Amino acid sequence: MEGLFIINGSEKKLSFDSGDILLNVLRANGFTEVKSGCHEGQCGSCVILLNEELVNSCQVFAAAAVGKDIVTIKGIGDIHSPHPMQEAFVETGAVQCGFCIPGVVLAAYYLLKNNPDPDDEEICRALDGNLCRCTGYVKIHEAVKLAAKRMAENV
Predict the structure, then answer these.
(1) What span, in angstroms and rounded, lies between the C-alpha atoms of 62 and 48?
(2) Residue 144 has what DSSP assignment?
(3) What's the whole-model pTM score?
(4) Which of 7, 22, 39, 128 has its CA 20 to 30 A from that of 28?
């Protein structure tokens, strides 16, 4: 099969088999920022935005994403022009090994896009589907709060 995907704002024609999951198709085509973790939708390392909804790409057939808007961590900012969320994660020391970070940052980005001033409980709920084995989540919560503050100041 072949399909046209809109990934980080660019159209990409990709080939895949009918049973392929989106995670594997993305990674096979160079989008390695989407991490491959549990393949069960439990760890959040493969999180993307699909038509502006947060989803685990390991739980989506590639065929179901044809023609849809896909955003990975690189779609919200890059090393030359980072998003305030990405900057906050670096500044607070929330980035350790980095494996979970793309999914965690996208989950936090999605949270602030829908709730620009979350409380601690809302942050916990929003990040509930993302496992991090390095930080203990304290610095991650600090990063989300810092990003929320900065994003509110720039409105």
Answers:
(1) 13
(2) H
(3) 0.94
(4) 128
